[in-house]
Amino acid sequence: MKVTIDGIEIEVEPGTTVLQAARMIGGDVVPPAMCYYSKLKDTGGNCRACLVEVSKGSEADPRPMPKMMPSCKTGVMDGMEVKVKTSERALDARKAVTEFLLINHPLDCPVCDQAGECDLQNLSFKHGLEKTRFKEEKRTFEPENIGDKIQLHMNRCILCYRCVHTAEQVCGSRNHGVLNRGDHAQISTYVSAAIDHEMSGNMIDVCPVGALTDKTFRFKSRVWFNKPFDAHRNCDKCCGKTTLWMFGNEIQRVTARKDEFHEVEEFICNECRFDHKEVSDWVIEGPRKFEKWSVINQSNYTRKMDKVVIDTEKQILEGRDQDRKKISMKEVPYKTSEK
Ligand code: SF4
Ligand code: FES
After folding, report:
1. For the chain, where are the E strands, in sequence order?
2. pLDDT higher than threshold 80 for residue 316
3. Which domain holds residue 74?
4. Which CATH number does the domain housing residue 45 bear?
5. What cofactors does the UniProt entry give for this protein (predicted)?
6. Using CA atoms, how far apart are residues 252 and 176, in angstroms rounded to an integer?
7. Closest residue by Cα to residue 213 from 222, 204, 221
8. Which of 6, 102, 233, 313 keeps 20 to 30 A from 30, CA to CA?
9. Using CA positions, which residue lies closest to atom 6 of ligand 1?
10. Residue 188 CA: which ligand is closest?
11. Tens-place pLDDT, residues 89-133
């Protein structure tokens, strides 16, 4: 069946959603997505960041759809016409959603490890207001320690449910859901119940914001100071294909490889992610490429790996250690009884 998105026609299989059709076209007709994740089943429909205008329902029933539609949950009909970037109404709706998402999200990008690779930061850049209109107090949660590998910042969570689906589908543990409702809705208890699984680190990669971050990387560097390289190793638990984030000759963190929609290409195990931080553990393939506009490109690393040597000044490392001590939550005890 045929669908036209922002004037571009594409033929797709029945059952394709508008978001998937837009991704097939690519470029700036792709709506933003904060909760849909193509690598996980049953995602989408929670954030409303992907709203679009359906100006023609189908060939059989050409009436426009009166409300803005979540493209990740709207199936394509033959002859449908959709506006993503060419609709003022859709743009306004996405702006409103962005404002809502930011109501409770702390503006702590300067100290957040996700800064530079945060989907909410990107969404705000394109659809956000210059100033906040929200004067009330933001929703806050008590810090909770969910283990030695993953840092949870519930204040930053946008309740996208991606980690819940990862816990269920990748870690195979069904102890999850949202606890409480409204302003008190939180996801932490359920995440901590699945945190011991050997694939649990993938929750860090799927989290669109800085609510789940890598404790072994915490406050080590801003992502744009790292040089990401694709690498692989023989692993019997996962594909072993990763991105190494290097500072000089030091591997500061290991993540799964992410595609142009910021989704992981293949999930990786905790052993690859957390236990192999020596260059000799990996076969390095070459620099990982990012979108032209990505802040990660600030750090030019187009030269071959064997020639890239950056000496890290002792003073910089000492400064980082002091920062880490000051802002880290090490003093928050890890309550195993809560699991
Ligand atoms: S912790 Fe992250 S992945 Fe999980 S629901 Fe919150 S924002 Fe989504
Ligand atoms: S991506 Fe469609 S509702 Fe979240």
Report:
1. 2-5, 8-11, 51-56, 69-70, 80-83, 150-152, 212-214, 227-232, 241-247, 250-256, 283-287
2. no
3. 2-96
4. 3.10.20.740
5. [2Fe-2S] cluster; [4Fe-4S] cluster
6. 31
7. 204
8. 102
9. 157
10. 1
11. 999 999 999 999 999 999 889 889 999 999 999 999 999 888 888
